[in-house]
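Could you help me review a protein record that somebody else here produced? My question to you is simply how this chain folds and whether the tokens agree. Thanks in advance; the entry in question is below:
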Amino acid sequence: VEVEQPSADRGGVGARAEVGVAAYDSSRTEFVNARVDWQLARATELSMWGGGSVGRRGDGYEYFVDPAGSPNVYSPPHQREQNAGFAHLRLRHAISSDNEIIAQYFHNRETGRDRWTAEFLPGFPQAQSADRTATRDDFEVQNVFRPFTPLRVSWGGSWRRDTLESPYTLGTDSRQSVFL
């Protein structure tokens, strides 16, 4: 494939932070993203996006809300970590000025690490984990055309798979998947 000219390149890098009331409930997230568009031919364009983020957030509670101020043994202060990334690829071809076909693929993956030690019985600490991994894959094909002015028609189809692994939340070690 011979590239006529690149259309556009852009990207971003940043960070976001939040200071909480207590030392353990602050958060910080760093992220990066980029997009590139190429004009492959007079009527064909290829676009690619990608990015990711990493972050930490404080979680848990120091005390129950009770008059005695009992220590929270179920979810004490701890750090949660989250990582996410995505990729999006789109091919767009104009058959004519009133008719185009678009094919695209999208992938997203998010992982979280959330571990702490709970003490349900005094003197017997127990490790807890709410770690999770979620992914989404989506493929779509679409045709947009104008049979006559001012009517515009769009039709197509897509396939999507969502997967979640989260033993703490789902109550099972198996992976749960949904196809749409």
In short: The beta strands are 5-18, 27-41, 44-59, 78-96, 99-121, 124-129, 132-148, 151-165, 176-179.
